[in-house]
Amino acid sequence: MVTLSEKILGAQAGTYVDRKVDKAFCHDGTGIQAKIIYDAIGAPGLANPDAVYVIYDHIAPANNSQTAELQAELRTFAEKNGAHFREIGSGICHQVMAEGLVHPGEVVIGADSHSCTLGALGAFATGVGASDMAGIWVSGETWLRVPDSIGLHLSGSLNAGVEWKDVALSYVAELGMDGGTYAALEFTGEAAPSVPMEGRLTLCNMAVEAGAKTGLFYADTETRRYLARYSVPCHMQIPENPVYVRECDLDLSSLEPVCAVPHRVDTIQPVSQLAGIALDQVFIGTCTNGRFEDLARAARILKGHRVKVRTIVVPASERDYLQAITTGVAADLVKAGCIMGPPGCGPCLGAHMGVLGEGEVALSTANRNFKNRMGVGASYYLCSPSTAAASALVGEIADPREVL
Amino acid sequence: MTALKGSGPAVCIGEDIDTDLVIAGRYLRTKDWSLWAKHVFEDLDPTLASRLQGSVLVAGKNMGCGSSREQAARALHEAGVLAVIAPSFARIFFRNCINVGLPVLECNIPECRDGMMVTFDCTEGWITVDGIRHEFLPLSPRMQEILSNGGFVEYWKRRLER
Q1: Closest chain B CA to residue A30
Q2: Furthest-apart CA atoms within chain A: distance in Å
Q3: pLDDT band at residue A259 using 50, 70 and 90 as cut-offs
Q4: How many CB contacts within 8 angstroms connect chain A with chain B?
Q5: Do A149-254 and A258-399 come out as alike in CATH topology?
Q6: How far, rounded to the nearest angstrom, does the alpha carbon of residue A375 sit from its chain's CA centroid?
Q7: pLDDT (tens digit, 9 = 90+) per residue, A340-390?
Q8: φ, ψ of residue A173 in degrees (nearest 5)
Q9: How large is the average pLDDT for residues A183-200?
């Protein structure tokens, strides 16, 4: 009668607990702010340096001297204090942590809202701000309110041209931008075991877009298969008749390719109804959809053709990038006219590498289309990698099912 | 020190205000906190920043959704906001406000008008708006302790001294 969150945190929903943090990570943006707080507290050192990760992804490489100087300060701090440091080009913090560093059953805290991504591995993973991260550096612990859980029951299977991103956008639309506030989302149901890890990461990544504290999959044979790649052992997690405060059924067979339309993540329309909207830029990447499988899906559509609109592709990690190179996926994308950026967040947060201008319209595989986020006065539609690729071919929003 | 009780004129903003709108990504990379007070809400309404000193910010549901950037809470605090009231908050923003020493009160105020007088008491858990009293769930003892210390830094300094 316990949810996975209650089991991992060892207390009932609604209880406040102090928990040792198994993995604590931040990036160049939040890390420097955490260092400012940490320095002000004046602690003697990191309580558990081996649990601390600093991963450069947000403005990577630095866009100006001021950013470079802040990055230099945090880099020196991480190295001097024995934290794990990952240089620019390693990848997006969530993806780097997903590559064998996070294990099922762990408590994982990231100084970034999309830290919920790592619930895909059966960990309790959530985001905090800079001060809370500094507190974890000081004490090795943090306080958490054990969340209620919402059960998302998956059934059926995806039709051709429909992807995990379409499922993510569809459940966020179903719950609404605050439908999961303070709660955890548990992905269960007959179809859950068949969701591949890359799909689980996409689904859990967007939990915060419904306001949720995290999204979780139970560790199962797929988790074991995935972690074996990194020689990480996997303890299975079996659902113990969890009690949910709300339950939603998602029939995968009933879904179609969708876009979240400007400027709300929870407002979706079928791609078929948006076809023909002219685009100034397409962006394929981010912690939602920058993995090798995402790039491969885009390449499958773009191979042998030429994009009609500037198309930026940013792999989620060095590993994803290398796999795209060795399999020929990167060459297919570049031959099709795509611009490959270094692994990291790319233009997602509106700081560099593809920020849009007033009146421009973009299609993006990211998780947020907030007004002005990726460029002041621009409009963004969110979609799957296949929808992005099919649209890049014609320079306007297009249904991937017509080119597959 | 953070005032756990206070009063000020309301500044009203809408629902689902994300932290990108509170402080845009292009202003985050700095140690100069006053920069955030200057550019707070710039992409939402550029006239807001100059009206925040001594005000109580009254927001719609899901206040502070999106990015974990603590700069959003810090910007409001630096701009002189006394407290933020909303029917619901995004949880990271809620924690961040407490940590920067800015009281957050989960309370539904049916109709917000700019300039209406709001008085709040975090310890007892009530708000009066133009004299009408609304109650809310008081903050947890730890949240109150962080706030009463003036924020996370002072709270931790005290803890390390003990």
Answers
A1: B69
A2: 61
A3: very high
A4: 122
A5: no
A6: 20
A7: 999 999 999 998 999 999 999 999 999 999 999 999 999 999 999 999 999
A8: -65, -40
A9: 98
Domain ranges, ordered by start, for chain A: 17-143, 149-254, 258-399
Query: Residue A346's closest CA among A42, A123, A88, A43?
Result: A88
Task: State how far the Cα of B37 lies from the Cα of B53, in Å rounded to an integer.
Answer: 10
**Superfamily of domain A17-143, CATH level 4:** Aconitase, domain 3 (3.30.499.10)
Hey, are the CB atoms on B90 and A213 less than 8 Å from each other? no
State whether residue B133 sits within 8 Å of chain A by CB: no
Query: What's the pLDDT tens digit per position in B112-121?
Result: 999 999 999 9
Interval B8-13 mean pLDDT: 97
* DSSP-assigned beta bridge partners for residue A311: A282
Q: Is the dihedral of CA A374, A377, A378, A381 positive or negative?
A: positive
B160 to chain A, any CB pair closer than 8 A? The answer is yes
CATH 3.30.70.100 for domain A258-399: no
8 Å CB contact between A353 and A334: no
Q: Say which residue the tokens 């607990």 belong to.
A: A17
Nearest CA in chain A to B20: A373
Any idea which architecture A149-254 has in CATH?
3-Layer(aba) Sandwich (3.40)
Contact A370 B21 (CB under 8 A): yes
Confirm or reject contact between B29 and chain A (CB < 8 A).
yes
Question: For residues B107 and B118, what is the distance between their CA atoms, to the nearest angstrom?
Answer: 12
Taking the Cβ of residue B149 and every Cβ of chain A, the question of whether any pair is shorter than 8 Å is answered with no
Chain B residues within 8 A of A127 when measuring between CB atoms:
68, 92
- pLDDT given for residue B123 in this prediction: 85
Residue of B nearest to A29 (CA): B29
Specify the CATH number for the domain of residue B21: 3.20.19.10
Number of structural domains (chain B) is: 1
Preceding amide of A263 cis, omega within 30: yes
Range of the domain at B30: 5-161
ipTM: 0.96
Is A350's CB within 8 Å of B69's CB? no
B67 vs A43: CA distance, rounded Å = 27
Residue of chain A nearest B158, judged by CA positions = A41
With an 8 Å Cβ cutoff, is B69 touching chain A?
A: yes
B50 Cβ under 8 Å from any chain A Cβ: no
Chain segment A315-342, per-residue pLDDT in tens: 999 999 999 999 999 999 999 999 999 9
**Residues in B touching A36 (Cβ below 8 Å):** 31
- Nearest partner of A104 among A288, A14, A238, judged by Cα: A238
